[in-house]
């Protein structure tokens, strides 16, 4: 039954005598014997020439479908161009091209598989396995190669050469490490994370158009997405926005429960909090007006604006940093100072 | 029983058999190539190599073929994509975004979608193929796990496959971030937050990765280098070794009549396997095109360019990153710990370390099991999952753990769709993560043992035929239909392990490692169903006659 194709990368090896560990190996006498192959069953295409002919036609039929599909794809490419501003034309281009190409591919695929299943020999063939390890002779040869290599080079004997080589190779990759220093600019990240564009007198402006907000514009229950005025003109607009984004809300003073040391950080029930989540930095964009809760849509951390934005649910650890605000002479809301702590996610040196 | 014909050596060479013009050309070409490459040796070795057949063996094939679809469609996309974060004003065909300031990367992604004929199709082929790639790798890994195909001599190939799985996820994530749209930018923001949580070096890792402060102007270009150069190069090398080892080790097969640990039974590469696998390649490719032609994936034009301030509700990563995102959602608040002035954000670190540990257990499982069984033999016959109850139960527990984390990535959508509170959903998922995993383990193990008992019963007494017969003495019995020997072999041939007995070593001592190993061994093999022996079959026959 068996035929031997020989190993590919490994020569034929002796049967393994490896330990079976805790496996229970039944004795020959007690274990059920492999009954060998069941009798081969012929397919209908093996016995009926008519069916065979039909299968043959079917296979080439699929290949013809594929030919039609591929030609159709080229035709559709020109027949259904994309017209500027017309989304339906994009849709038609994508669908017609894709379906035609798909037909071109599926025809080949289904035809080939059908050919294999219905017409090619379905007799199962046996190939012998050999132990993966090399034969003792091969292994002895391999050992000899290394022994000779060692002897002829003196690799094991000349320890000074060997050890200095190892050190040299090890050190040769060190320059690669310093070469990556300029992946980032020279400044220290730790300092950058502590400062935003906010400072005393900077007006609170609407996100994204940048128009300043008057205290009188902020009605009870409303919320504004805020950026510092002038942010849109900054060359590093997005980096600054990623730190300086703020949410502005006005609560009824009786709902607002302020910390005594921050009593003058708000103006007439208007409070401003960093919009950057203290969990991993998503924008805390959803304000629930009735409950005064802020929800981060990424990981569902919830902050209670009425209670100095403390965390009431979710994986965030710290309250959102508060931006102290006041109004200027013209009635516009302005910052009293920068945030008093770094905004956004926690990091190692944060408390330093 | 091969039909290979040994080449007959003649003076004109083995390839000369000029019966027709076409054959003359073929043999001349073959001769030309062989005289310069000795390729005939390779053809002789692998041309009639045997591949066993089972539907589950095609999962790895799906992964391989979808990877080829990714390579081809991805190459097409590189001709049009501009990996730059330079701010431009969009002037393409998509009217709602006209004049908007955005990165060149996002603008060129829009151009691919709306101004290049077939561009959207290729983008969707690339994305769908990537989703299919990761999915089929996952299913392929589960097939390997539950059938024990990772056992000696295939442990290294499991490890390489694991590396491929991780690379596939990394490729997916880097590719997802390239269009620089609002959704992917928020994904990067989350990565930035997670990196910053790493003790000691986190702030610096983020700083180097983004080339300064988040988001910077470098990240898309850097991810592009990784996505189209470094990661694919590693992936292709690992894939090559993976397939080479598959050929060297030869494919595993399920137990069946005529199949032994020392043979491979199946169809030869030429012609049947080549036709089936080659045909299947076209089918996979065709199906990807069919899906891409009809179903939108990642409609970046709806999200707008990245801006750190807006975000839409119901944000979700691609499915294969879901388990990591879900893990982030399940932690309770207030886990920042400050030690000596340094901050350890455990709310992020626990999911991070937990996922690394989970993946490490997946990677190292074959070595752990090999240590517990102490089995040093080669295994080429696959286990039926029921015959290894504890392994199957561990697998089921792992799948449950992963699935709960994955579900957690949709916690907000679950809450809104089923009108539940987000708090309730999170608490339920937290409970499921722990108890669901345990329940899955226990139930699976019991189900496996039950199925083994049923198999044993059937092997010994046959199937219930439903035919009731009255004996002359008045007794009623149900006639059992006996199995044929082939069917019985399928049910009865499996490996059986018993728990390790602790024995003192030469010094009369029992080492701690030995105790731990025995503990694991008890856990694995305490409950075992012994395979049916010949004697039992004989005895059962006497019972019936």
What does this structure look like?
The complex is a heterodimer of chains A (352) and B (545). In chain A, the strands form three sheets. A five-stranded antiparallel β-sheet of chain A has the order 2-3-4-5-10. In chain A, strands 6-7-8-9 form a four-stranded antiparallel β-sheet, with no helix packed on it. Chain A has three domains: 75 residues; 44 residues, no CATH class; 132 residues, Rieske [2Fe-2S] iron-sulphur domain (Rieske Iron-sulfur Protein, 3-layer Sandwich). Chain A contains eight helices and twelve strands. In chain A, helix 2 packs antiparallel against helix 3. Chain A is an alpha+beta fold and 352 residues long. By secondary structure, chain B is mostly helical. In chain B, the strands form five sheets. Chain B has a two-stranded antiparallel ribbon. A two-stranded antiparallel ribbon of chain B has the order 2-3. Chain B has a two-stranded parallel ribbon with strand order 4-8. The longest helix of chain B is centred in the C-terminal third of the chain and has 40 residues. Chain B is globular. The chains are: A alpha+beta (352), B mainly alpha (545).
In spatial order, strands of the major sheet of chain B run: 1-5
Low-confidence stretches of chain A: 1-14
Secondary-structure class of chain B: mainly alpha
Strand content of chain B: 5-15%
User: Which strand-content bin applies to the residues of chain A?
Assistant: 5-15%
Number of helices of chain B: 19
Strand order of the largest sheet of chain A: 2-3-4-5-10
Radius of gyration of chain B: 29 Å
Structural class of chain A: alpha+beta
**CATH class label of one domain in chain B:** Mainly Alpha
Largest sheet of chain B: 2 strands, antiparallel
Topology pattern of chain A, helix = H, strand = E: HHHEHHHHEEHEEEEEEEEE
Q: Residue share in helices of chain A?
A: 25-40%
CATH architecture of one domain in chain B: Up-down Bundle
**Form type of chain A:** extended
The CATH superfamily of one domain in chain B is known as: Cytochrome Bc1 Complex, Chain C
Number of helices of chain A: 8
Q: Can you tell me the CATH topology of the largest domain in chain A?
A: Rieske Iron-sulfur Protein
User: What integer is the average pLDDT of chain B?
Assistant: 92
Q: Helix proportion of residues of chain B, in percent?
A: 55-70%
Question: Within the CATH hierarchy, at the fold level, what is the topology of one domain in chain B?
Answer: Cytochrome Bc1 Complex, Chain C
């Amino acid at each position: 039954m068996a035929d031997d194709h020989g190993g590919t990368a490994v020569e034929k090896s002796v049967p393994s005598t490896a330990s079976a560990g805790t496996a229970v190996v039944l004795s020959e006498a007690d274990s059920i014997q492999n009954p060998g192959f069941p009798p081969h069953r012929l397919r209908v295409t093996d016995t009926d020439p008519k069916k065979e002919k039909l299968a043959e036609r079917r296979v080439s039929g699929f290949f013809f479908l594929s030919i039609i599909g591929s030609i159709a794809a080229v035709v559709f490419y020109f027949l259904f161009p994309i017209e500027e501003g017309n989304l339906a034309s994009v849709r038609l281009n994508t669908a017609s091209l894709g379906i035609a190409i798909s037909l071109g591919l599926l025809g080949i695929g289904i035809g080939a598989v059908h050919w294999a299943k219905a017409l090619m020999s379905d007799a199962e063939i046996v190939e012998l396995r050999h132990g993966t390890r090399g034969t003792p002779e091969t292994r002895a040869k391999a050992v000899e190669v290394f022994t000779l290599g060692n002897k002829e080079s003196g690799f094991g004997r000349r320890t000074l050469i060997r050890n200095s080589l190892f050190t040299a190779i090890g050190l040769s990759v060190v320059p690669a490490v310093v070469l990556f220093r300029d992946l980032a600019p020279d400044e220290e990240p730790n300092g950058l994370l502590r400062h935003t564009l906010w400072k005393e007198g900077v007006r609170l402006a609407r996100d994204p158009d940048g128009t300043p907000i008057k205290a009188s514009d902020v009605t009870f229950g409303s919320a504004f997405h805020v950026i510092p005025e002038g942010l849109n003109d900054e060359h590093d607009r997005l980096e600054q926005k990623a730190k300086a984004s703020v949410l502005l809300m006005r609560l009824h003073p009786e709902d607002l429960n302020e910390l005594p040391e921050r009593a003058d950080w708000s103006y007439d029930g208007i409070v401003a909090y960093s919009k950057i989540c203290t969990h991993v930095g998503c924008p805390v964009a959803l304000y629930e007006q009735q409950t005064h809760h802020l929800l981060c849509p990424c990981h569902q951390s919830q902050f209670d604006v009425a209670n100095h934005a403390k965390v009431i649910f979710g994986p965030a650890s710290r309250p959102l940093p508060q931006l102290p605000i006041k109004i200027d002479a013209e009635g516009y809301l302005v910052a009293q100072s920068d945030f008093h702590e770094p905004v956004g996610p926690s990091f190692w040196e944060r408390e330093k | 029983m091969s039909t290979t014909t040994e080449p007959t050596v003649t003076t004109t060479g083995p390839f000369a058999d000029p019966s027709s013009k076409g054959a003359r050309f073929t043999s001349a070409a073959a001769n030309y190539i062989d005289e310069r490459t000795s390729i005939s040796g390779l053809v002789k070795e692998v041309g009639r190599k045997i591949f066993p057949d089972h539907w589950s063996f095609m999962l790895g094939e799906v992964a391989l073929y979808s990877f080829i679809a990714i390579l081809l469609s991805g190459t097409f996309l590189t001709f049009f994509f501009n990996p730059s974060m330079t701010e431009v004003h969009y002037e393409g065909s998509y009217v709602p975004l006209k004049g908007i300031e955005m990165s060149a990367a996002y603008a060129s992604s829009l151009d691919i979608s709306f101004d290049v004929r077939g561009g959207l199709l290729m983008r969707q082929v690339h994305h769908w193929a990537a989703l299919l790639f990761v999915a089929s790798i996952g299913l392929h890994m589960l097939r390997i796990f539950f059938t024990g195909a990772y056992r000696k001599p295939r442990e290294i190939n499991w490890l390489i496959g694991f590396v491929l799985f991780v690379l596939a996820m990394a490729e997916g994530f880097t590719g997802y971030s390239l269009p620089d749209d609002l959704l992917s930018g928020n994904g990067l923001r989350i990565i930035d937050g997670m990196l910053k949580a790493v003790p000691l070096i986190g702030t610096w890792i983020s700083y180097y990765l983004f080339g300064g402060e988040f988001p910077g102007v470098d990240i898309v270009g850097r991810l592009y280098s990784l996505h189209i150069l470094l990661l694919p190069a590693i992936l292709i090398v690992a894939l090559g070794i993976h397939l080479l080892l598959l050929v060297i080790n030869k494919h595993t097969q399920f137990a069946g009549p005529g199949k032994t640990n020392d043979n491979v039974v199946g169809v030869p590469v030429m012609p049947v396997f080549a036709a089936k696998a080659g045909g299947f390649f076209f089918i996979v490719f065709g199906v990807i095109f069919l899906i891409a032609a009809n179903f939108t994936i990642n409609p970046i034009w709806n999200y707008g360019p990245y801006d750190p301030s807006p975000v839409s509700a119901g944000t979700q990563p691609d499915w294969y990153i879901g388990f990591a995102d879900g893990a982030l959602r399940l932690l309770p608040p207030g886990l920042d710990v400050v030690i000596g002035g340094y901050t350890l954000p455990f709310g992020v670190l626990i999911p991070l370390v937990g996922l690394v540990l989970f993946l490490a257990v997946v990677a190292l499982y074959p070595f752990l099991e090999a240590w517990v069984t102490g089995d040093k033999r080669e295994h080429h016959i696959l286990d039926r999952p029921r015959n290894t109850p504890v392994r199957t139960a561990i697998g089921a527990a792992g799948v449950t753990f992963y699935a709960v984390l994955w579900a957690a990535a949709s916690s907000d959508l679950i809450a809104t769709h089923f009108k539940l509170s987000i708090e309730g959903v999170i608490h339920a998922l937290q409970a499921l993560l722990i108890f669901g995993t345990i329940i899955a383990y226990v139930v699976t193990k019991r189900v496996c043992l039950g199925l083994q008992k049923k198999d044993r019963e059937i092997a010994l007494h046959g199937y219930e035929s439903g035919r009731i017969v009255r004996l002359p003495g008045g007794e009623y019995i149900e006639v059992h239909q006996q199995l044929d020997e082939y069917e019985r072999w399928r049910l009865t041939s499996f490996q059986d392990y018993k728990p390790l007995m602790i024995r003192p070593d030469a010094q009369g001592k029992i080492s701690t490692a030995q105790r731990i190993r025995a503990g694991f061994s008890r856990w694995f093999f305490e409950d075992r169903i012994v395979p049916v022996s010949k004697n039992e079959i004989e005895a059962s026959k006497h019972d019936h006659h």
